[in-house]
Design brief:
single chain; 23% strand; four-stranded antiparallel β-sheet; Rossmann fold; 10 helices; 10 strands
Length: 264
């Protein structure tokens, strides 16, 4: 469903600020794979996600989504294949619009705009049913402005909007990092439920090693713009955070030095 072939990316080439962000990355996700991505600062995690999303052009290599070569497609053209949730709960929704209006925007993504009435009663009833699965009481607040919601409520709504059209690939960029632990767990539980229900192919960046081990069927570790560890299935289930730290030390040749990951 997603294939990254020999992708490299260098920022500010030929200057004192030159940074090799990705170094000949290869990654293949089969349909339904839920892959968690961990690594220290500057490991290349977010750059890899941004390359898939089309935020940055690749220097070399290819990116394919469901067999379609999207390497040269602009971000807005590539968006029809993707759903994305960002770290900041304020991103991904329109704060001054109502909950049902935000959902309508997501539902009509990629469709031609017309002059017909905004939201029908049938659509509103459908949104109400969708919101019930979040178990946050939002189904009773369809006309509330999204800007009035808490961070967790807003992030859960963003997740629902990102998956409404069942994207080929769902990109989660540390989408629980800005939330308190209790709310983060709630949003992550909702994430697992939505991904499982729709069998979505998912790539999730996280700094939380426990979450990376608990969620998904596969885990990859990055360092220095490379994938240094890739584990799946039963082998992943048996790993502990101590095992991950040891794997990092062996693969990277150094101790992990990232406070956010270690404290998580």
């Amino acid at each position: 469903m997603l294939e990254i072939r020999n992708v490299s990316k260098v920022f500010n080439p030929g200057t004192v600020n030159e940074k090799k962000a990705l170094n000949d990355i290869n990654l293949k996700l089969n349909p339904g794979d839920f892959v968690t991505v961990i690594g220290g600062n500057g490991a290349g995690k977010s750059t890899m996600l941004n390359m898939v999303a089309g935020v940055y052009p690749v220097d070399s290599g290819q990116i394919l989504i469901d067999g379609v070569d999207v390497t040269r497609l602009h971000e807005y053209k590539r968006a029809k294949y993707l759903g994305r949730v960002f770290q900041d709960p304020m991103t991904g929704t329109a704060a001054t619009m109502q909950i049902d209006e935000n959902l309508a925007l997501a539902a009509r993504r990629g469709q031609a705009r017309t002059l017909r009435i905004g939201i029908s009663a049938k659509e509103r009833a459908g949104y109400k049913e969708l919101l019930k699965m979040l178990d946050l009481g939002l189904e009773e607040r369809l006309t509330s402005k999204v800007g009035l919601l808490s961070g967790g409520q807003r992030q859960a709504l963003t997740l629902l909007m990102a998956t409404l059209k069942q994207p080929k690939v769902l990109l989660l960029d540390e989408h629980t990092a800005a939330l308190d632990p209790k709310t983060a767990k709630k949003v992550l539980d909702i994430t697992e439920e939505i991904v499982a229900k729709n069998q979505l192919t998912t790539l999730m960046i996280t700094h939380n090693m426990a979450d990376a081990l608990r969620v998904g069927n596969r885990l990859i570790m990055m360092n220095g713009g490379r994938i240094i560890f890739d584990v799946a299935g039963e082998e992943k289930k048996k790993l502990t955070t101590a095992d991950l730290l040891e794997k990092f030390k062996i693969s990277a040749g150094e101790e992990l030095n990232n406070d956010r990951m270690l404290l998580s």
